[in-house]
Batch of 2 targets.
Target 1
Amino acid sequence: MELVLDLHLHSRFSRAVSQRMNLANMYIWGRKKGINILSIADFTHPIWFREARSQVEEINSGIYRLKDRKHAEQELGPLIQKEFIGPYFMLSTEVSSIYTENGVPHRIHNLIFAPNFETAGKINGTLTRMGFNLSSDGRPILGISSKNLAKVLFEIDKKIAIIPCHAWTPWFSLYGSRSGYDSIVDCFGEFSKYIFAVETGLSSDPSMNWRIQELDTRSIVSFSDAHSPEKMGREATVLRPKANSQKPRASDITYDNILNSFVRGHERIFEIGYTIEFYPEEGKYHYTGHRLCKVSYSPEEDRTKGTICPSCHRPLTVGVIHRVEELANNGSNNFKPRSDEFGVIWMEDTRPSGPEALKGRRPPYVSLVPLLEILSECLQSGVSSGTVLTMFDRVVNHFGSEHEVLFRVPITEIRNVGGDRVAQGVEKVRARNIKIVPGFDGEYGKVSIWNEEGESERGKPQEKTQLGLGF
């Protein structure tokens, strides 16, 4: 049994989020993507809270199922006949803490998990009584420090969990260069011992996070932070049965067991098997730069050229990779590439497992380009075009899910269903044989699957980063 989790999503009640982000569409796209457990996001928003609560039923402790699935299953067509667990839902929400501490301004985004609707309702009631306007946005702004937020939440229910979101984003995160801290204890104080995981975000991957010594005893998780159904699952955390444990049953899929799988060294039924990652170069803040002046610096360049814009002479937005190097106190991440039988390059921890190896080997990860983006370049059409969506449904309906297509289906079978071009695109992505102009200062990186020699590209970048076995 594998469980694919995407526990950081947003509803249509959050700013800049598609109006199609409702539970029925999340269910449909979660099934297409191959996600077993999704977030009932934004539970602090009063209208969404009532709507979501009325539309789901609890099947296991803290795990919910959509009540009315008839329309969604009609939309899924042949997919509904294939064996699949879920999609089910759990309660989590992102909040934005904006405050000043010791004269320093901070903007920290945290993901809050609630074990049930009763506890989620208590969270909402407490925050409302504290004077926070929860109806203004699905991701509310709270004028409270992360430390005090943790104190308030843990007093409500010890089963509530907090995971810092997209931990390296410059403007809104735990380690953010413009708004964060240098350590978890600086941010959460005496409650830091209860922060058992951090989320990578799109601009970092696990090997970058393992450079930070205080994360040795914490898990690295990845979720999509999706604002539209199509973006769900672009990052995910995959659970497997814990080694030497009994075979899990359906009744073992509970809030407690899923959260316990994130507590490194104390996993019970499940443990993190691997994470699915965005290529960090494709994230919006990987490199240091200034978007308006079109200045982008690699780590080597910003070490020599500094972090002041040569055009407008204002501070550049320091990129995630620069910030990781700034805080890194582990000399090596020990991750090396390994190719599997399907040609997928996995990044694996090469150290021996065991108690003397920093509590054992760290979970592997795989970096992938979303299938819609691959198809867009293969078919030379927009990601939301009818041409791309038709091909997406064709291959997903045949093979069972996007995740199956991306790294489990033999290339010859993809070729039979999607054609040579689609098969070649998936094969190149699996092999990390792509090029990316790294993102910076809020601008996503630009992916090119094919080279310049007569083959298609999205955009015409002047400088590219080659990803392959030698990186």
Target 2
Amino acid sequence: MLTYECNLNCVYCYEKKKHPSKTMPLETAKCIIEKIFAENDKVCEEIEFDFMGGEPLLEFDRMKEIAEWMWSCTWNKPYILYATTNGTLLNDGMKAWFIQHKERIVLGLSYDGSPEMQNQNRNSSAVNIDIKYFITTWPFQPFKMTLSKETVGQLYKGVTYLHRVGMHKVHANLAFGLDWTLKTLDAFAKQLVLLIDFYVVNPELERVSLLNLDVTVIFHKTDAPKYCGTGSGTELVDYDGRVFPCHIISPVTLSTEQLKVIAQVDFENKSCFANPICETCMLVSICPNCYGMNLLHTGDLKKRFPVLCKGFIIQFMANCKLQAKLLTRKKELTEKEKKLAYALIIINKSKIRKKKNYE
């Protein structure tokens, strides 16, 4: 966590404790990195270090110091450096440095669709972002596209715009923590229908993540799965060296009282995250679930937002519809496609399909 500061104030931002003085000293970063390599000597095969904020490019000089120090050292296993940015602060000097080291550090852009959508969500910032730079420098690194209530009705416009400008991969999601209503989810469903028709006509394009689910997941075992690696495969090292489970379950987002709730949680124990209400659902292993957001908004790590659950069912059924349409265009099915067709038949007869008003 390089800094708590950010130069934007996005409509869906969950980091409510931004502060310009909370930045990570170089020596703190060095101590933490040395400790991570030592502790993970036999635990994992590779380590990914993410520079986070706030907006990490506000601390570009510190990021550069850390990266160049790491590259000057010999470590006991492979690693990659990564940073997520809003892209508004990237100047010519930064661009040249990232290009020079693009094989060793990846810069991921958060960009919310079309310029109009970006401006609605992110302080009229589209004019300050060089999209082409990101596409050219890291062509297969996805853009992160977050949908707000204001932009969900423009999903088709946003995704097709990014394809048009040359973006290969788009990862999109409904923003957590917002007051999503059935009306906004209806707009979401209608936009997915438009994208289904788009991808049927353009099957060569890599589909937006919303429409790139593996529906054969219904055959997978679902014994209290843990959706993400928070606190186990992932850790957040705060600017002062303290360690937290992830960037959401940390002081930049949660209060001291909320953080006390998770102090005794065993993050390696999947049963600590299992919600009995969800255990019988065939989608439980892939349903997006953010434990930090659960704690922030419901006070319980296990308790999901019911309205987002409905949103995911809409998304899942849209995937089924798209994949069924694509299969009907095939003259002959592979064994993998036959398994997919069988899954679609089961889903079509299941309770999932009846839970929402979506054809």
